[in-house]
Specification:
Layout (H helix, E strand, L loop, with lengths): L1 E9 L2 E7 L4 E6 L5 H11 L15 E9 L4 H9 L7 E9 L5 E4 L2 E3 L1 H11 E4 L10 H12 L2 H28 L2 H18 L5 H13 L1 H17 L4 H18 L4 H27 L4 H20 L7 H16 L1 H47 L6 E8 L11 E8 L7 E2 L6 H14 L8 E5 L7 H15 L3 E5 L3 H4 L4 E10 L2 E8 L2 H13 L5 H19 L1
Parallel strand pairs: 3-13, 3-14, 8-12, 12-13
Antiparallel strand pairs: 1-2, 1-4, 4-5, 5-6, 6-7, 9-10, 10-11, 14-15
Helix pairs in contact: 4-13, 5-13, 6-12, 7-11, 8-10, 9-10, 13-14, 14-15, 17-18
């Protein structure tokens, strides 16, 4: 819900800060005092089109900051998280309008686009009257409200999911059928490529082995020459290194008998002689096995040339050829079994469509029953709200079977006849802003327990009514305020008296400049304000008594 709003240099407001409470809050004041500026400011904060002419005269920018508690608004929390704009549960929206340049918007301190602000605003606040954000005028929202009212949102979600599954299968089937025409040509190409790659039969680790063998065979002369020279130095020359090491070890053995300190060097020399002997043996074995066949090098070079030629042909590195073969084989298997896949997809698609149709039919029946109940309830509320003879109906227009979608098999439309004898027409076409507000109020009261938007604003809901009807409007707003946060701009004392709290909007002149001021009213000042609304310029004791009675009646109604 809305917890705080700050308005800076907007219209005739220089600076205004206001804490907002739960329940029904009435905004009252003299005509022209600026009561609707609060509504306009909230609309700007939630994505309404910005206009530089709304900036206070003499200032270069205007600013609106609105804070919301999202404890009971999971849809807004989810939206913020998905947009990476969340901030520990609460939400602060800031809109800055500049005289030159584009306006800027921020959500929780991070820049946001105008469309993001509007999408978020639709989840936070509904403004009813001659303003934007009237969710009840949007067909999708009307459908969602009917489903929530009827208690079949789970069924509606199942219908939407079944349709999405059907569309996925239908798209896959279309792609396969389109590819089928090109399948024969592709099959011939794949078979040739698989055969060519299979003939090469390159093992995953073979390229490394071939590279190593090529280096060895390319350097056979050097390997033989150097190895033979080292072998001669170790064991076959005069004097050989092995013999010199053994002789030195014998010399030190004699001296070690005199000085034990030479024992360790003697042992190291003996070990070195042994290692030299073993190295010489290994070199002889290596030389005996060294293949000097020139044909071996040619064989390796031919194999490497085949590998690199095929890699260039397929535009990949040589090491990727085994993976390429596996990929081509998999695609070949898929195409070779495409007819079977097409048949299976058709069967699955028809099964999912059948399930969707069954669920959609059940949803249509549930919506029809809920539509009748909602129509009767709102029609009854219209009679109480000063629209005698008015009718409200929820129209379900069936789609052709091929036009059914995620929303079901019908279009949901709220229809209204505001006066006796007038035909039903779409709610969006109701001409009178006051009538639209009262109809919206009746719908909101009827669906208060299932609505998802936490804050409702009614601007001029009491236009064209008075007396007992005005008191009924006030009671309906108070009832709605027990379930949601409701802000109501009103001229009628019967409505204001029903509010849980009241704010007075005043226009005052300071230093030649006009300012709008909003102040919360305590018990005494509220009595005076309701009395002013009853009595006009002259407030008598009888007027105050009447105001007191109205306020007491509202409190007493809560206790009964």
């Amino acid at each position: 819900m809305l917890t705080h709003i700050l308005i800076q240099d907007l219209a005739i407001v220089s600076r205004l800060e206001l804490d907002c409470a739960r329940g029904l809050t009435a905004l009252t004041g003299e005509t022209g005092a600026g009561k609707s500026i609060l509504v306009d400011a909230l609309g700007l904060a939630l994505g309404d089109k910005a206009d530089a002419t709304t900036i206070r005269a003499g200032q270069e920018r205007a600013e609106v900051v609105a804070s919301f508690d999202l404890t009971h608004c999971p849809s807004a929390r989810d939206w913020l998280a998905a947009a990476a704009l969340d901030d520990e549960g609460d939400c602060i929206v800031r809109r800055v309008i500049v005289r030159t340049g584009r306006s800027r918007a921020f959500v929780n301190g991070r820049p946001a686009s105008g469309s993001q602000l509007k999408d978020l605003g639709d989840l936070l606040v509904d403004i009813h009257g001659q303003h934007a954000h009237q969710s009840l005028l949007r067909p999708n929202d009307q459908r969602a409200l009917l489903d929530a009212y009827g208690g079949h949102t789970t069924l509606a979600a199942a219908v939407a999911m079944a349709f999405r599954d059907y569309r996925t299968l239908d798209r896959q089937l279309t792609e396969l059928e389109t590819a089928r025409a090109e399948r024969a040509e592709r099959l011939d190409l794949l078979r040739f490529q698989v055969e060519e790659l299979a003939v090469l039969a390159l093992r995953p680790d073979e390229l490394t082995t071939l590279d190593q063998e090529h280096r060895r065979l390319s350097n056979l002369g050097r390997l033989q020459e150097t190895t033979a020279r080292v072998l001669a130095q170790l064991a076959e020359s005069e004097p050989a290194i092995e013999d010199q090491l053994r002789s030195a070890a014998v010399d030190l053995a004699e001296l070690a008998a005199i000085d034990p300190g030479l024992t360790e060097p003697r042992e190291l020399l003996e070990t070195a002689a042994i290692h030299a002997h073993e190295a010489a043996s290994a070199l002889r074995h290596y030389l005996d096995g060294l293949d000097l066949d020139p044909a071996a090098l040619a064989t390796v070079e031919t194999r490497l040339a085949q590998v690199h030629d095929l890699a260039r042909k397929y535009r990949c590195v040589p090491a990727q050829l085994p993976e390429l073969l596996a990929t081509r084989r998999a695609e070949l298997r898929t195409l070779e079994t495409a007819d079977q896949s097409l048949d299976e997809l058709r069967t699955r698609r028809e099964a999912v469509w059948g399930f969707f149709s069954t669920q959609a039919t059940a949803l249509t029946a549930a919506r029809s029953a809920a539509a009748a109940r909602l129509g009767e309830t709102v029609t009854g509320a219209m009679q109480e709200l000063g629209m005698a003879g008015g009718l409200f109906a929820v129209q379900l227009e069936r789609f052709p079977p091929e036009a059914a979608g995620a929303g079901g098999a019908e279009r949901v439309e709220f229809m209204v006849s505001a006066n006796p004898g007038q035909p039903l027409q779409r709610l969006a076409r109701v001409a009178s802003g006051g009538e639209l507000s009262r109809i919206s109020l009746g719908i909101q009261v009827a669906t208060a327990e299932v609505g998802s938007v936490p804050t409702l604003v009614f601007d001029e809901v009491d236009v064209g009514i008075g007396g007992g009807v005005a008191e009924i409007v006030g009671r309906q707003l108070r009832r709605l305020g027990s379930a949601r946060q409701v802000l109501c701009v009103t001229h009628l004392p019967q409505v204001a008296a029903q509010a849980h709290q009241q704010l007075r909007v005043r226009k005052e002149t300071l230093d030649g400049a006009t300012h709008t001021r909003v102040e919360p009213l305590d018990e005494a000042t509220r009595l005076e304000e309701v009395a002013r609304m009853l009595g006009g310029t002259e407030i008598t004791r009888r007027t105050r008594d009447h105001a007191s009675e109205m306020l007491s009646r509202a409190l007493a109604a809560d206790r009964t």
